[in-house]
Amino acid sequence: MNRSMEAEEVLQRYAAGQRNFCGINLQGIHMRGVNLRGVNLSWADLSRASLMDVNLNEADLRGTCLKESFLILANLTQADLSYANFTSAYLTLANLSQTNLNQTNFTKANLTKANLI
Length: 117
Description:
By secondary structure, the chain is mostly loops.
């Protein structure tokens, strides 16, 4: 599924029960305060995305590109972030507790007050 989607379409499909968005192009997508618990965004491109206060609890974000993204106040509890790329991303006040951080790239990421317990 390499095509691009808009935020509204993703949210509609999620509401209809779809959870697998593996490999999708969501560059520059804007979502705020939405629930995407358990979503599969593995190997997706979310570079320059704005996902402020988004619930990504238990999400599969393996290999996902989140370069220069804004995940301020995002809930990533119990998410799989292995091999994800957060280069220059903003994760201020994000909750990354109980996440899989195997080979995760946080180069130049802002993790100010993020929960990494």
